[in-house]
């Protein structure tokens, strides 16, 4: 059931301004696009999405963000207080001396692998090649163990996405692309009995089937799940063939692109090459719609694939939903800086990439604030995606107070996006019934 709501504006702000975007207009477009069973729709699920899963008190987040994950890894591998330093303590000191961030797991792994590349036959900064290999193994094992988690219940945004996919018969399957190593999307699909294909076939040791991907030899009612950076249940045998297992793969046999500067090199190998190519192929399809959630455009090898595909297909549309505001105040000097500089730069150059931040958007290369253009009667739960804030500034010299109304879009929160998709199920079912 939908609740009627209204969004009000004073009359002097109801006119459309060139540097403003109406969130209601664009949410309506998104809702209409997502309700079509023949439209090519893809979701790009990235690192920020697990943060939207509600957890019991003291258990949040389900999977920590990069900084928090790094802190957990550091605490696990550092020597206990009051005991002699171990090799990991010494490693962190060397990383700090090199002006790298010891709370960024990518910097840590990049530093280890950089030393390992030149350590053969000798010592580098006090570490032997064997010691560096052990450090790398321990770090990667801790990362994998922190990602080996399950969704806490059946009401998560992942379940909402899976339920929406399963709500109508589709002429074209929904495709999910993810850089995450976890098994959360797989769990949501299985909890909702949604058939899906992830590139592997078989029962005992499912193997990667390139032909099925290249020739699209997959039932259309199966959703596609493309794990661009691998998964914690992928392994590689002695012949370098990649398999999917039913257990958490050990580091020695795991086939993940662990965060480091080597991500680009690893992504050029199979099966990653085929999966990234699948992302490009999807965007190049006529009138495709890609919705990016939790992605901050900091992976340059993925940015290149997305940008080139968007350039080659002007009919494709990509919408990046960003959780936070578009700018940030620098605590050192109070200056205003872009929070997502890579994303903003790309969106200003690509008319078919829209950036929807909390407080502003870049749509059609035009950057502007969100502003509802008229009083809106909401019968379809759209207004729940928009937050209205009123700021009262006292008048000067007896002048009346000034009310400033701001509208902020909440779809960048994967939890809000999940609720939006869940609300669409009623619209989809109504549309299907009317068609019959």
What does this structure look like?
This protein is of the alpha/beta class and 436 residues long. The chain folds into two domains: 5-58 and 150-435, no CATH class; 66-147, no CATH class. α6 (157-165) packs parallel to α13 (414-435). The two termini are 22 Å apart. The model is unreliable at 1-17 and 430-436 (pLDDT under 50). It has a ten-stranded mixed beta sheet with strand order 2-17-16-15-12-11-3-4-8-5, with helices on both faces. A two-stranded antiparallel sheet has the order 1-18. A two-stranded antiparallel sheet has the order 6-7. The chain has helices at residues 23-34, 66-77, 87-97, 105-117, 129-147, 157-165, 184-191, 210-214, 263-267, 272-283, 300-312, 341-349, 414-435, and strands at residues 5-7, 20-21, 41-45, 175-178, 196-197, 200-201, 207-208, 223-227, 234-236, 242-244, 289-293, 317-321, 327-329, 336-338, 353-356, 360-363, 366-370, 376-378, 386-393, 402-409. The chain has 13 helices and 20 strands. The protein is globular.
């Amino acid at each position: 059931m939908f609740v009627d709501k209204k969004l009000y504006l004073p009359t002097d702000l109801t006119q459309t301004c060139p540097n403003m975007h109406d969130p209601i207009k664009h949410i309506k477009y998104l809702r209409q696009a997502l309700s079509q069973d023949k439209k090519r729709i893809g979701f790009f699920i990235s690192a920020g999405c697990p943060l939207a899963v509600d957890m019991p008190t003291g258990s949040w987040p389900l999977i920590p963000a990069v900084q928090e994950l790094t802190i957990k890894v550091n605490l696990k591998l550092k020597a206990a207080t009051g005991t002699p330093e171990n090799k990991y303590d010494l490693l962190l000191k060397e990383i700090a001396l090199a002006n790298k961030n010891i709370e960024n797991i990518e910097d840590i792994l990049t530093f280890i692998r950089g030393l390992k590349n030149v350590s053969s036959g000798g010592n580098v900064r006090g570490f032997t090649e064997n010691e560096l290999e052990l450090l790398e193994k321990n770090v990667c094992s801790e990362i994998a163990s922190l990602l080996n988690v399950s969704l806490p219940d059946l009401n998560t945004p992942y379940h909402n996405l899976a339920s929406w996919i399963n709500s109508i018969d589709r002429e074209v399957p929904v495709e999910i692309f993810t850089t995450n190593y976890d098994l959360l999307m797989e769990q949501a699909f299985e909890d909702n009995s949604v058939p899906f294909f992830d590139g592997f076939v078989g029962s005992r040791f499912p193997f990667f089937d390139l032909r099925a991907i290249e020739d699209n030899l997959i039932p259309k009612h199966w959703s596609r799940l493309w794990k661009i950076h691998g998964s914690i249940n992928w392994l590689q045998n002695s012949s370098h063939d990649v398999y999917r297992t039913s257990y958490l793969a050990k580091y020695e046999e795991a086939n993940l692109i662990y965060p480091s500067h080597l991500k680009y090199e690893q992504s050029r190998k199979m099966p990653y090459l085929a999966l990234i190519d699948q992302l490009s192929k999807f965007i190049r399809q006529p009138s495709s719609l890609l919705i990016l959630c939790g992605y901050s455009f900091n992976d340059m090898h993925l940015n290149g694939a997305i940008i080139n595909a968007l350039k080659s297909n002007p009919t494709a549309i990509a919408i990046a939903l960003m959780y936070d505001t578009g700018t940030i105040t620098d605590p050192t000097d109070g200056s205003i800086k872009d929070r997502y500089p890579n994303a903003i730069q790309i969106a200003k150059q690509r008319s078919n990439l829209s950036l929807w931040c909390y407080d502003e958007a870049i749509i059609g290369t035009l950057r502007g604030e969100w502003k509802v253009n008229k009083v809106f009667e909401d019968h379809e739960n759209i207004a729940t995606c928009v937050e209205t804030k009123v700021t009262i500034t006292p008048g000067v010299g007896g002048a009346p107070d000034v009310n400033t109304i701001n509208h902020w879009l909440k779809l960048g929160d994967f939890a809000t996006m999940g609720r939006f998709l869940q609300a669409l199920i009623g619209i989809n079912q109504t549309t299907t019934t009317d068609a019959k």
